[in-house]
Amino acid sequence: MSTIDINTIAPRPHVAITCKAAVAWGAGESLVMEQVEVSPPQAMEIRIQVVSTSLCRSDFTAWQSHAIFPRIFGHEASGIVESVGQGVTEFKEGDHVLTVFTGECMQCRQCTSGKSNVCEVLGLERRGVMHSDQKTRFSINGKPIYHYCAVSSFSEYTVVHSGCAVKVSPLAPLEKICLLSCGVAAGLGAAWNVADICKGSTVVIFGLGTLGLSVAQGAKLRGASRIIGVDTNPEKGEIAKAFGITEFLDPNDSNEPIQQVIKRITGGGADYSFECIGDTGMITTALQSCCDGWGLTVTLGVPKEKPEVTAHYGLFLTGRTLKGSLFGGWKPKSDLPSLVEKYMKKEIQIDEFITHNIPFEDINTAFNLMREGRCLRCVIHMPK
């Protein structure tokens, strides 16, 4: 599938434009195609013509919740810069970009620490407005339509802070690399940056969606000797082999608690475990599946309920560690271009995660497929 010809984009830097967007009007309600007005980019912002976007589990979770509505979801996306706001020097019209849900200002304490990717200025945005002025850039008949994760890519055009976009090679296929703006990169980074998996180690992964399978891919590339996948969907077992899973466990197939099964077959527990479901109860299970002394559990999933984590203190006294992972520890502007390069060199898999290609007008099909557990990533393609 070819990308948009940048020569067909007519820059409109100082005027609002009208385009189609898939608007969520209420929790769990089908998205509605609406004509929305997209404001011009303000200082340090860029307006992007979205080329491809995909449905991430966190979009789905937030859509089901009683979040802010009306809203335009979507954050895993690629596109082409249509116009730039005052003060933007990093981007120009026609640049190919990935959007990111957590930005990098490169100046705050976190960005300059070398220890973190949790930007104090452009970190997770939960209020549905822009970082700069706490207002939206979308409206219908003057009524504000709220953003999601500072991106809102389920729209033909969107406005993001320039710190929430990453310039990429124009040779990279935008309809593929959009997956690197969240899920695939987050899983790889959890394996490489957060856990720093060692060669010959044993890894167990709870949840074999895109996130979990990306962890598996990262573990395989690091030389893990056993990569155990745990999921209640038996169909995932065969699919997971292509990403590095060496053994598959369905908790429903055993009368034993799954953590006991894992400790038994690994001779005391895994070196690393990853919670990729978004179920805080599974964090304890993942901790119990690790070995004493150096067992490390990394949690990546976004829970839709019961966000509190509980675990017996004895799990930590015996040497286990629990770590959180936001976007796999990647600093988006600094690190994502290298992941795109790895994909172009065929060093990492992306294409294999794309189970469905869906035209924008059929976006609700992607939500149905995710609800039914019949997809990894649905890539949604904007009209040319």
From TrEMBL:
Homodimer. Belongs to the zinc-containing alcohol dehydrogenase family. Class-III subfamily. InterPro entries: ADH-like_C (IPR013149), ADH-like_N (IPR013154), ADH_Zn_CS (IPR002328), GroES-like_sf (IPR011032), NAD(P)-bd_dom_sf (IPR036291). Residues 44-168 form the Alcohol dehydrogenase-like N-terminal domain. PANTHER family: ALCOHOL DEHYDROGENASE, ALCOHOL DEHYDROGENASE-LIKE 6. Its cofactor is Zn(2+). GO terms for molecular function: alcohol dehydrogenase (NAD+) activity; S-(hydroxymethyl)glutathione dehydrogenase [NAD(P)+] activity; zinc ion binding. One of its GO terms (biological process) is formaldehyde catabolic process. It comes from the Eukaryota. Residues 211-340 form the Alcohol dehydrogenase-like C-terminal domain. Its EC number is 1.1.1.1. GO terms for cellular component: cytosol. The keyword Metal-binding applies. The keyword NAD applies. SUPFAM superfamilies: GroES-like, NAD(P)-binding Rossmann-fold domains. This is alcohol dehydrogenase. It is an enzyme of class 1 (oxidoreductase). It catalyses: a primary alcohol + NAD(+) = an aldehyde + NADH + H(+); a secondary alcohol + NAD(+) = a ketone + NADH + H(+). PROSITE patterns: ADH_ZINC. Keywords: Metal-binding, NAD, Oxidoreductase, Zinc.
